[in-house]
Amino acid sequence: MIAGNRPINYLRISVTDRCNFRCQYCVPSSPFSVIEHKKIARYEEILRITNLACNLGITKVRITGGEPFVRKDIFSFLEKLCAIDSLKDISITTNGALLTRGKIEKLITLGIKRLNFSLDTLDPSKFARITGRDRFQRVWESIFTAHTLGISPVKINAVVLRGINDDEIEDITALTLKYPFHIRFIEYMPMGDSAVEKEQQMLTQEIMEKIELKFGKLMPVKRTANDGPAKKFQIAGAKGIVGFITPISSHFCSECNRLRLTSRGTLRPCLLNNYEKDILNPLRNGASDDELKQIILAALTKKPSFHGLTDQSIKDMPISHMTSIGG
Ligand code: SAM
Ligand code: SF4
């Protein structure tokens, strides 16, 4: 599949809009409702859409949410997903709180060897403030269990917010001296009405300056096939990598190879643009495989060449919050 001149081979599947955490930067600050169960795509529906997308050239899938592991029977879904021959790479983004040793072992048995964890702080009380849940130790344990069981790379996503965790950039980076983790600092994206203010957004340039002041020059690392949009570096003597995801300061739209399937069964060609194409209702109304493939291709024709987010005021964003789209 091609959108503009970009080959599209990566599908991000959000299996749920529900989450056991309430991260300040992710969920709306005002009360919100979750999607009715009957409107959420069932596993067999997601698998049919994924199979068709694979026929059209998708080879890589990431499972996300909400929190993927809050959805019932996720492992039986993952087992069927892993059985799709043409999928060469399946990974999961998780907050890690529900991942026990047994579950990580199961993932490895299924062939899932790459996990991204979200961890914005190394301070348990700050963790509770950011996520709304007192679960730091649990998440920390999951990350280390994944590491000891051979998940590689263990990626850790940290959204940096001024006045919240910007004083920990150096400590989080220092994890790469001890462990082969890939730390990825993510620029806060203004989505929906989160409690985060514009002044709290920290861009990559400033984050890099703080790191270089403490550890010296960041050395660029050669890109590999599974890199995605992160710009990767190492500090001297490090076992791990520090990456920067820069949707705001340096958008990577021209390289974006992604299509998203939301838990409501809509196709979303761009995270930061509200255009979505319904594929679930046509599927439920009896559309043929060919008709569904046409819907996938039609969605891709709407993939914008640039998300435009930097041009708008943070409070005017007409964009849904992250849990409802899938991060
Ligand atoms: N619950 C899982 C987790 O937290 O990893 C998966 C879903 S979460 C929406 C996926 C990623 O999106 C997380 O790494 C999170 O930090 C990131 N994220 C959420 N809201 C964001 C925002 N407003 N700006 C930048 N990243 C955000
Ligand atoms: Fe949940 Fe992940 Fe959003 Fe946090 S970032 S509220 S863990 S979906």
Question: Describe it for me?
Answer:
The protein has 327 residues and is an alpha/beta fold. The protein has a domain of 226 residues: Alpha-Beta Barrel (TIM Barrel), CATH 3.20.20. The protein is 30% helix and 17% strand. The chain is built from 10 helices and 14 strands. The strands form 2 sheets. It has a 12-stranded mixed β-sheet with strand order 9-10-11-8-7-6-5-4-3-12-13-14. Strand 7, helix 6 and strand 8 form a beta-alpha-beta unit. The radius of gyration is 19 Å and the shape is globular. About 2% of the residues have low confidence. Iron/sulfur cluster binds next to helix 10.
Structural class: alpha/beta
* Overall CATH class of the domain at 2-151 and 249-324: Alpha Beta
What would CATH call the architecture of the domain at 2-151 and 249-324?
Alpha-Beta Barrel
Sheet with the most strands? 12 strands, mixed
